[in-house]
Design goal:
The complex is a heterodimer of chains A (about 230) and B (about 170). Chain A is mostly helical and about 230 residues long. In chain A, about 70% of the residues lie in helices and about 5% in strands. Chain A has eight helices and two strands; from the N terminus they run βαβααααααα. The model of chain B has no long low-confidence stretch (mean pLDDT about 90). The longest helix of chain B is centred in the middle third of the chain and has 159 residues. By secondary structure, chain B is mainly alpha-helical. The chains are: A mainly alpha (about 230), B mainly alpha (about 170).
Chain lengths: ~230, ~170
Amino acid sequence: MEFAPVELFYLPNNAVTRLFNIAGAPVKSTVTTTWLIMAALVLISWLATKDLKKEPEPGSLQNIMGAYVEAIANLVETTMESKNKAFVSYIGTLTIYLVVANLVGIIPGRDLFNLYTPTADLNTTLALAFITAINVHFLGVKTKGIGAYLKGYFEPMPLLFPINVIGAFADPISLAFRLFGNMMGSVVIMALLFGVVPLVVPGIATIYFDVFAGVLQAFIFSMLTMTYISMEVE
Amino acid sequence: MISIDITFLFQLFNFVVLFLLLRHFLFEPMSNFMEERAQSISNKIDSAEQKQQAAQEIKEEYQQKLKEAKIEAQNIIEDSSRRAERVKEDIIIEAKEEANRKIKKAEEEIKRSKQQAVEDLKDEVATISIQIAKELIEQSIDDQMQEETISNYIEQLDEEKLGDLKC
């Protein structure tokens, strides 16, 4: 059992990769698994919305995805007090990606296909937290104006400026490490359990460590993202 | 186990791409569709409410009109019964007058007829008296004349027939 993503192949040394200075960079199973998840999500989305009906059948893809979009829109409205569609798309993408990514661990035979829980790789969680941080600060500047935004670092008193700067970095870092730690922990514990008792017990444990913790952590990540953004925007 | 490498950039790029794709394929069409649906439902509710309100107004209007019509009908009935009453009284008065007039006329007629009859009778009596008197006079003259005539005839007979007889 691998506790880290494996390097599957390396980017070819061609014009495109040279342009971005990433020629020969290793592509890990984290990335390939993310591609598969992306493909699956885009396919489901396309199927759900290619033929929108006024009265979707209960249980149809349109119905399920419609309920998901509506739930996210309601969540964004109550948490962020905003009806901004960009927020709905962002939080919705984040949540569905995290839920699916966190549940990769329960796919049987994942080692055969080199599937690796993307969120058990710090790079993934840091990337997501980085996007959240960019959103927070960009929207902070956009809504308050650059002066008020910078002034916020000297409040309630100028002495607290270093603390505020640390806080600005602490939020996304804690966000990334929380998710990474939980998912990594799940992966490690499940691997250990499989090693000790291969039958029955891992099946019960996986319900908690993979399913429950996975969905819960995805939800926490999205909720915290919304909270950080709304705190900065207010 | 914990390493930050090029995968960070890949995942950053992947998530942005996934965000754009899902926004295009899922969130925008779905939320637009749901908004349209909500809009059409609220439009339907609005129009139904408007129709109901209009129906209510029409109903009230008709009730008002019905009420007015009832009042008017009542008025017409009262008016016409009053008029009929008046007409009735007029007719009775007129009939009484007519009757009185006729009675008066008949009385006058009777009076006149009586006078006439009296006068006629007087005339008649006079005529008859004269007639009787006349006849009486004539009769007395006639008897004398008849005797004369008969005696004349007999005389003639004697002269003519007896003379011719071959006795």
